[in-house]
Amino acid sequence: MRLNEAYSGKVFINSSNDYENSRAIIYGMPMDFTVSFRPGSRFGPARIREASIGLEEYSPYLDLSIEDITYFDAGDLMLPFGNASRSLDMIGEYVGGLLRDGKFPLGLGGEHLVTWPVIREMYKKYPDLALIHIDAHADLRDQYEGEVLSHSTPVKKAVELMGGRNIYQYGIRSGSREEFKFGKEHVNFHPFEVLVPLKKSLPSLAGRPIYVTIDIDVLDPSAAPGTGTAEAGGITSKELIAAIHEISQSDVKVVGADVVEVAPIYDPTEQTPIVASKLIREMLLGFVK
User: Which cofactors go with this protein (predicted)?
Assistant: First the structure.
Protein backbone atom coordinates (compact mmCIF):
# COMPACT_ATOMS: atom_id res chain seq x y z
CA MET A 1 0.00 0.00 0.00
CA ARG A 2 2.05 2.90 -1.25
CA LEU A 3 1.02 6.32 0.00
CA ASN A 4 1.28 7.80 -3.45
CA GLU A 5 0.91 5.38 -6.31
CA ALA A 6 2.96 7.75 -8.47
CA TYR A 7 5.78 7.90 -5.91
CA SER A 8 9.08 7.61 -7.76
CA GLY A 9 11.52 8.79 -5.10
CA LYS A 10 14.27 6.69 -3.62
CA VAL A 11 13.29 4.13 -1.00
CA PHE A 12 15.17 3.10 2.13
CA ILE A 13 17.94 0.64 1.35
CA ASN A 14 16.82 -2.96 0.81
CA SER A 15 13.14 -2.06 1.05
CA SER A 16 10.81 -4.80 -0.20
CA ASN A 17 8.04 -4.33 -2.75
CA ASP A 18 5.82 -6.65 -0.69
CA TYR A 19 3.54 -4.67 1.61
CA GLU A 20 1.46 -7.66 2.66
CA ASN A 21 4.39 -9.69 3.99
CA SER A 22 6.27 -6.76 5.53
CA ARG A 23 6.10 -6.38 9.28
CA ALA A 24 7.44 -2.80 9.31
CA ILE A 25 6.29 0.04 7.09
CA ILE A 26 8.50 3.09 6.60
CA TYR A 27 6.53 6.22 5.70
CA GLY A 28 7.39 9.90 5.38
CA MET A 29 5.63 12.88 6.98
CA PRO A 30 7.08 15.87 5.08
CA MET A 31 5.60 18.67 7.15
CA ASP A 32 7.31 21.74 8.63
CA PHE A 33 4.47 24.25 8.68
CA THR A 34 4.59 25.23 12.38
CA VAL A 35 8.32 25.48 13.09
CA SER A 36 9.43 28.35 15.30
CA PHE A 37 12.92 28.93 13.87
CA ARG A 38 14.20 27.31 10.66
CA PRO A 39 11.99 25.39 8.21
CA GLY A 40 13.23 22.57 6.00
CA SER A 41 12.39 19.34 7.82
CA ARG A 42 9.84 18.49 5.13
CA PHE A 43 12.87 17.48 3.05
CA GLY A 44 14.13 15.16 5.79
CA PRO A 45 12.42 11.91 4.75
CA ALA A 46 13.79 12.03 1.21
CA ARG A 47 17.35 12.77 2.33
CA ILE A 48 17.30 10.04 4.99
CA ARG A 49 16.36 7.55 2.27
CA GLU A 50 19.10 8.82 -0.04
CA ALA A 51 21.68 8.64 2.75
CA SER A 52 20.67 5.04 3.48
CA ILE A 53 22.29 4.00 0.20
CA GLY A 54 25.66 4.42 1.93
CA LEU A 55 24.75 2.06 4.78
CA GLU A 56 25.96 -1.47 5.17
CA GLU A 57 23.02 -3.83 5.49
CA TYR A 58 24.79 -5.57 8.38
CA SER A 59 24.73 -4.17 11.92
CA PRO A 60 27.84 -5.25 13.85
CA TYR A 61 26.19 -3.99 17.04
CA LEU A 62 23.35 -6.50 16.81
CA ASP A 63 24.95 -9.11 14.53
CA LEU A 64 21.89 -8.83 12.29
CA SER A 65 21.33 -7.72 8.70
CA ILE A 66 18.40 -5.92 7.13
CA GLU A 67 18.82 -8.33 4.22
CA ASP A 68 17.22 -10.94 6.49
CA ILE A 69 14.02 -9.00 7.29
CA THR A 70 11.15 -7.75 5.17
CA TYR A 71 10.02 -4.13 5.38
CA PHE A 72 8.25 -1.82 2.97
CA ASP A 73 8.95 1.86 2.26
CA ALA A 74 5.61 3.40 1.36
CA GLY A 75 7.00 6.79 0.36
CA ASP A 76 5.75 10.14 1.66
CA LEU A 77 2.25 11.28 2.49
CA MET A 78 1.10 13.99 0.10
CA LEU A 79 0.24 16.54 2.76
CA PRO A 80 -1.61 19.77 1.86
CA PHE A 81 1.08 22.43 2.18
CA GLY A 82 0.34 24.94 4.94
CA ASN A 83 -2.68 23.08 6.30
CA ALA A 84 -1.42 21.63 9.58
CA SER A 85 -4.80 20.43 10.84
CA ARG A 86 -5.66 18.46 7.71
CA SER A 87 -2.11 17.12 7.48
CA LEU A 88 -2.32 15.74 11.02
CA ASP A 89 -5.65 14.10 10.20
CA MET A 90 -4.12 12.46 7.14
CA ILE A 91 -1.17 11.14 9.16
CA GLY A 92 -3.54 9.71 11.75
CA GLU A 93 -5.74 8.09 9.12
CA TYR A 94 -2.76 6.42 7.47
CA VAL A 95 -1.20 5.14 10.68
CA GLY A 96 -4.57 3.88 11.85
CA GLY A 97 -4.73 1.80 8.67
CA LEU A 98 -1.25 0.40 9.31
CA LEU A 99 -2.26 -0.65 12.81
CA ARG A 100 -5.41 -2.35 11.52
CA ASP A 101 -3.17 -4.27 9.12
CA GLY A 102 -0.95 -5.37 12.00
CA LYS A 103 2.06 -3.36 10.83
CA PHE A 104 4.87 -1.65 12.73
CA PRO A 105 4.83 2.07 11.75
CA LEU A 106 8.29 3.60 11.37
CA GLY A 107 7.91 7.28 10.53
CA LEU A 108 10.32 9.81 9.03
CA GLY A 109 9.72 13.48 9.85
CA GLY A 110 9.06 16.27 9.39
CA GLU A 111 8.65 18.55 12.37
CA HIS A 112 7.83 16.97 15.73
CA LEU A 113 4.13 17.86 15.63
CA VAL A 114 3.70 14.97 13.18
CA THR A 115 4.17 12.55 16.09
CA TRP A 116 0.97 13.72 17.81
CA PRO A 117 -1.60 12.01 15.52
CA VAL A 118 0.53 8.85 15.56
CA ILE A 119 0.41 8.74 19.36
CA ARG A 120 -3.36 9.25 19.22
CA GLU A 121 -3.77 6.21 16.97
CA MET A 122 -1.34 4.14 19.01
CA TYR A 123 -3.23 4.93 22.21
CA LYS A 124 -6.50 3.79 20.65
CA LYS A 125 -4.99 0.36 20.01
CA TYR A 126 -2.81 0.17 23.12
CA PRO A 127 -4.55 1.79 26.12
CA ASP A 128 -1.56 0.89 28.32
CA LEU A 129 0.85 2.63 25.93
CA ALA A 130 3.97 4.37 27.24
CA LEU A 131 5.91 7.01 25.32
CA ILE A 132 9.70 7.26 25.24
CA HIS A 133 10.62 10.74 24.03
CA ILE A 134 14.29 11.53 23.30
CA ASP A 135 14.79 15.19 22.41
CA ALA A 136 16.62 18.42 23.19
CA HIS A 137 13.28 20.19 23.76
CA ALA A 138 10.54 19.44 26.26
CA ASP A 139 7.66 20.06 23.78
CA LEU A 140 5.40 20.60 26.79
CA ARG A 141 3.85 23.92 25.79
CA ASP A 142 0.11 24.43 25.47
CA GLN A 143 0.73 26.81 22.57
CA TYR A 144 3.48 28.79 20.91
CA GLU A 145 2.77 32.42 20.06
CA GLY A 146 -0.94 31.62 20.31
CA GLU A 147 -0.79 28.56 18.04
CA VAL A 148 -1.89 25.29 19.67
CA LEU A 149 -0.75 23.27 16.65
CA SER A 150 2.99 23.77 17.04
CA HIS A 151 6.05 21.57 17.05
CA SER A 152 6.54 22.67 20.67
CA THR A 153 3.24 21.11 21.84
CA PRO A 154 3.03 17.38 20.90
CA VAL A 155 4.20 15.93 24.21
CA LYS A 156 1.88 18.16 26.22
CA LYS A 157 -0.96 16.87 24.07
CA ALA A 158 0.21 13.33 24.80
CA VAL A 159 0.21 14.10 28.54
CA GLU A 160 -3.39 15.23 28.31
CA LEU A 161 -4.31 12.06 26.43
CA MET A 162 -2.28 9.40 28.25
CA GLY A 163 -1.34 10.92 31.59
CA GLY A 164 2.12 12.21 32.38
CA ARG A 165 3.27 9.14 34.29
CA ASN A 166 3.10 7.14 31.05
CA ILE A 167 5.57 9.48 29.38
CA TYR A 168 9.35 9.22 29.73
CA GLN A 169 11.50 12.11 28.50
CA TYR A 170 15.29 12.01 28.05
CA GLY A 171 17.97 14.45 26.95
CA ILE A 172 15.86 17.57 27.47
CA ARG A 173 18.02 20.68 27.70
CA SER A 174 15.79 23.44 26.35
CA GLY A 175 12.36 24.81 27.22
CA SER A 176 10.58 27.45 29.23
CA ARG A 177 10.71 27.62 33.01
CA GLU A 178 7.08 26.49 33.03
CA GLU A 179 7.84 23.46 30.86
CA PHE A 180 10.66 22.29 33.12
CA LYS A 181 8.50 22.77 36.21
CA PHE A 182 5.62 20.87 34.63
CA GLY A 183 7.91 18.08 33.44
CA LYS A 184 9.48 17.59 36.86
CA GLU A 185 6.07 17.51 38.55
CA HIS A 186 3.99 15.50 36.08
CA VAL A 187 6.22 13.49 33.72
CA ASN A 188 9.08 11.01 34.10
CA PHE A 189 11.43 13.84 33.24
CA HIS A 190 15.16 13.26 32.73
CA PRO A 191 16.94 16.44 31.57
CA PHE A 192 20.36 16.52 29.91
CA GLU A 193 21.15 12.78 30.03
CA VAL A 194 19.80 9.86 28.01
CA LEU A 195 21.55 6.54 28.45
CA VAL A 196 21.94 6.32 32.25
CA PRO A 197 18.36 7.31 33.20
CA LEU A 198 16.98 5.22 30.32
CA LYS A 199 18.70 2.10 31.66
CA LYS A 200 17.17 2.77 35.08
CA SER A 201 13.67 3.31 33.68
CA LEU A 202 13.34 0.35 31.32
CA PRO A 203 12.79 -2.38 33.95
CA SER A 204 9.66 -0.56 35.15
CA LEU A 205 8.29 -0.67 31.58
CA ALA A 206 8.76 -4.42 31.09
CA GLY A 207 5.96 -5.99 29.09
CA ARG A 208 4.34 -2.71 28.12
CA PRO A 209 3.75 -1.44 24.56
CA ILE A 210 6.10 1.47 23.88
CA TYR A 211 6.18 4.15 21.21
CA VAL A 212 9.63 5.70 20.69
CA THR A 213 10.02 9.17 19.21
CA ILE A 214 13.48 10.62 18.57
CA ASP A 215 14.10 14.24 17.65
CA ILE A 216 17.47 14.39 15.90
CA ASP A 217 18.28 17.60 17.78
CA VAL A 218 18.90 15.58 20.94
CA LEU A 219 22.32 15.17 19.34
CA ASP A 220 24.87 17.91 19.79
CA PRO A 221 25.00 20.20 16.73
CA SER A 222 28.52 18.92 16.09
CA ALA A 223 26.95 15.52 15.36
CA ALA A 224 23.76 16.72 13.66
CA PRO A 225 23.79 20.35 12.47
CA GLY A 226 20.99 19.71 9.98
CA THR A 227 17.98 20.47 12.14
CA GLY A 228 15.62 23.38 12.54
CA THR A 229 16.27 24.19 16.20
CA ALA A 230 19.81 23.10 17.00
CA GLU A 231 20.70 23.17 20.69
CA ALA A 232 24.26 23.11 22.05
CA GLY A 233 25.24 20.65 24.76
CA GLY A 234 23.77 17.48 23.30
CA ILE A 235 24.70 13.82 23.31
CA THR A 236 26.81 11.94 20.78
CA SER A 237 25.53 9.70 18.03
CA LYS A 238 27.28 6.80 19.78
CA GLU A 239 25.15 7.36 22.89
CA LEU A 240 21.94 7.65 20.88
CA ILE A 241 22.63 4.39 19.05
CA ALA A 242 23.37 2.76 22.41
CA ALA A 243 20.01 4.04 23.72
CA ILE A 244 18.21 2.36 20.81
CA HIS A 245 19.99 -0.88 21.65
CA GLU A 246 19.09 -0.60 25.34
CA ILE A 247 15.42 -0.30 24.40
CA SER A 248 15.56 -3.12 21.86
CA GLN A 249 17.31 -5.50 24.26
CA SER A 250 14.98 -4.78 27.17
CA ASP A 251 11.67 -6.50 27.98
CA VAL A 252 9.49 -3.75 26.54
CA LYS A 253 7.40 -4.23 23.41
CA VAL A 254 8.10 -1.42 20.94
CA VAL A 255 5.00 -1.01 18.75
CA GLY A 256 6.08 1.97 16.64
CA ALA A 257 8.74 4.65 16.31
CA ASP A 258 9.83 7.75 14.43
CA VAL A 259 12.83 9.99 13.79
CA VAL A 260 11.95 13.64 13.20
CA GLU A 261 13.33 17.14 12.61
CA VAL A 262 16.05 16.31 10.07
CA ALA A 263 16.44 19.50 8.01
CA PRO A 264 19.14 18.66 5.45
CA ILE A 265 19.51 22.14 3.97
CA TYR A 266 21.52 23.22 7.04
CA ASP A 267 24.04 20.41 6.73
CA PRO A 268 26.09 20.41 3.50
CA THR A 269 28.21 17.58 4.93
CA GLU A 270 25.08 15.35 5.07
CA GLN A 271 26.15 13.90 8.40
CA THR A 272 22.65 14.50 9.86
CA PRO A 273 20.71 12.33 7.36
CA ILE A 274 23.57 9.81 7.51
CA VAL A 275 23.12 9.52 11.29
CA ALA A 276 19.33 9.35 10.92
CA SER A 277 19.50 6.57 8.36
CA LYS A 278 21.70 4.52 10.68
CA LEU A 279 19.22 5.05 13.50
CA ILE A 280 16.47 3.71 11.23
CA ARG A 281 18.54 0.63 10.42
CA GLU A 282 19.11 -0.09 14.11
CA MET A 283 15.41 0.44 14.85
CA LEU A 284 14.39 -1.95 12.10
CA LEU A 285 16.71 -4.64 13.44
CA GLY A 286 16.13 -4.00 17.14
CA PHE A 287 12.51 -2.93 17.49
CA VAL A 288 10.70 -5.00 14.89
CA LYS A 289 10.41 -8.46 16.36
Answer: Mn(2+)
